[in-house]
Amino acid sequence: MTPQTTLSDAIESTIASLPQHMQDWVRKEADLCKPDSVEIITGKADQIIRLENELETSGAYTRLDEDVYGKRCFYARSDKNDVARVEERTVICTEDPVDAGPLNFWANPEEMHGKLDKLFDGTMKGRTMYVVPFVTNPADSQFATAGVQLTDSANVVCNLYRMSNLQDGWRILEKQARFPRITHSYGTLSKEDRWITHFPKELYCRTINSDYGGNALGPKKIFGLRLVGIQALENSQKKSQPDEDVGIELVEHMALFGIDYGDRRVQFGAAFPSMCGKTNIATGVAEGPMAQYKVFTLGDDIIGGATKKGDGRLYVNNIEAGMFGVTRGMSDFANKMLMEALRNPKPEVQDCEGGPIFTNQVLVDNNGSKRVWWSESGEDFPQGDGITTYNWLGEQIDASAEEKDQKNARVTMPIRNVPNLDSDYSNSDGVPLDVALIGGRSSKLHPLISRARSWNEAVYHALCQFSEPTAAAVGQKPRYDPMANRPFIAFNVSDYAQKWLDIPKKTPKPPAVFSVNWFRRDDDGNFIWDGFGANYRVLDAAVRQLDGKDAWLETPIGLVPKPEHIDISGLKYTTTNEQLAEILVPNKEALKSEVANREGWLNELENGLETGSEGRGAPKKLPQAIWDEHEAFKKRVEEYTA
Ligand code: GTP
Ligand code: SPV
Ligand code: MN
């Protein structure tokens, strides 16, 4: 029976054209949010082009010069209080707080629904509610899942069209009875009433008062990492033997790329925390001694995967269709393939998904020709006759201004424009993952690269991966960030640790795991390692170690290469073997405090955070294997630093 609503006939008839199994839900949401109209996103480009034009007319989008970036390229400014993810307002709503665990904020589902019902009541008055279908990529892969996002933000729709597969959404949703649902409203953009909430049991998320990527683009972090992450956990727990097909088993915050050696391809997944180099490593170019080899891109933020029957290896793919990249630092030096994508957009991509959408850079108006500028782009701040520049706040500025582009300014672009995108990107079987890299920003402790002696040791180090704050989330502090996934594991972290420990049981040929750190600094705070293109030299050393060509040295944190295993010729920062030797081993002083720090961290995982635990879920015991590894680490450090 159709529930009683007060919806207009026009809205009723739009809803009636949706697949039967989702009509009641959309009707209920429309009844609460009270939009003036409801519009179904078809997945076709003409509708998105109309929305872009409307955003341009309203002043929300500034169209950028077609000669610079191709067609349908826009610039937007966010609200000044809505520039990043807000972890303090990201909540997992489960009956039992243990299911959310000690790292997530937790709320009782009924109470949170009560609070949100009030905030969503009438939030879409005077607006259109868009019904957006999406499916993870590739749409016909055995681990693809489709969902629906409702949103009142045309900006979100245009971003989603570039980021996620909307084109195949309805086709998959028609036959998927149980579908994840996300309701989003940018509301009033009020910081105080901003909430990003997840109701795993209902496969439902409600997010309000933000229009920023990770808070508002449902298929990305909310659905892709958190909801599908829970599904992957449940599937992997069900799996009793390697050859059992249970659907998606793994979702990680990982870039996916490879090195093509001509006679062989090696595929890497890189789990680095937000703003720690995933997009860069996936779209960079190998240089120096590695210049002859081609780096190919498969993805830059989220992978999903499963063990392949009869093969025992982990097959993964990028579940997204676009990139939401940090512009600060984007340059020909750092990630040339992204710059090429901007410079030479493919007409068929611009006509379909559209061009890049920039948010919060400096807007440059050169006699009416508009483009953007960002810091650390390798290009001087634009000035001269006829040039006017505006910062991300909309103020007219010159080169001396303190506030130029926002630190977390981003660009949304379809991945199909990236010139080194590999054809396996759309392989519905995924690609075998050869190497998993776990990293973070560690200015003192972590060596450039290390490899644990066993799977369990690797999991322990990954659980204790340290990283310094970035601008990708509001108010961040230095912290441990398990597998770069701390803000996105929507369940108890002890279960996450167990899941990782169990991987070899279900995936007999798991990827080799290496820890990496591109961010060691000297006492003056300068980076010691060149980073970017030079990182592929380090990955090449990893491949040689895997092949048994180079014997690495023992340290408490794992095996590390000797200086002769990494070619530093032509580097600008690491110019001497002494410098290289220093960053190839863990810093002894930092190592001494690390034992106590890790012990504190593991205790927090098991007993709750020492500070800031209020409002969070409840902890549970960590797998014993993690404690065993910690004890072994402690002993090794004692011997090493004696
Ligand atoms: P999210 O999109 O937030 O998940 O970030 P990400 O992990 O994709 O990070 P991204 O590649 O966008 O890099 C973030 C910042 O780190 C940029 O400003 C880069 O210039 C900088 N960066 C990336 N790789 C390196 C590196 O090897 N060395 C140094 N020093 N900086 C790097
Ligand atoms: C991150 O913060 O890890 C991002 C950007 O990739 S967001 O989509 O906002 O999460
Ligand atoms: Mn990310």
What does this structure look like?
It is a single chain. The chain has 642 residues and is of the alpha/beta class. It folds into 3 domains: 9-235, Phosphoenolpyruvate Carboxykinase, domain 1; 240-327 and 423-590, Alpha-Beta Complex (Phosphoenolpyruvate Carboxykinase, domain 3); 592-641. It has 18 helices and 31 strands. It has an 8-stranded mixed β-sheet, with helices on both faces. Strands 14-12-13-25-29-26 form a 6-stranded mixed β-sheet, sandwiched between helices. The radius of gyration is 24 Å and the shape is globular. Bound molecules: guanosine-5'-triphosphate, sulfopyruvate and manganese (II) ion. Guanosine-5'-triphosphate (GTP) binds at residues 272, 274-280, 300-301, 325-326, 328-329, 334, 472, 518-519, 527, 531-532, 535.
The largest sheet has its strands arranged as: 1-6-7-8-10-9-4-5
Model regions low in confidence, pLDDT < 50 over at least 5 residues: none
Q: Helices and strands: which structural class?
A: alpha/beta
User: What's the gyration radius in Å?
Assistant: 24 Å
CATH topology label of the largest domain: Phosphoenolpyruvate Carboxykinase, domain 3
Q: Under the CATH scheme, which class of the largest domain?
A: Alpha Beta
**What gross morphology would you assign?**
globular
List bound small molecules.
guanosine-5'-triphosphate, sulfopyruvate, manganese (II) ion
Q: What is the strand tally?
A: 31
CA distance, first residue to last residue: 75 Å
Main β-sheet: number of strands, strand sense, barrel status?
A: 8 strands, mixed
Architecture per CATH nomenclature, i.e. the level-2 architecture of the largest domain: Alpha-Beta Complex
Mean pLDDT: 97
User: What is the overall number of helices?
Assistant: 18
Strand proportion: 15-25%
Estimated helix fraction? 25-40%
Instruction: Tell me the number of structural domains.
Output: 3
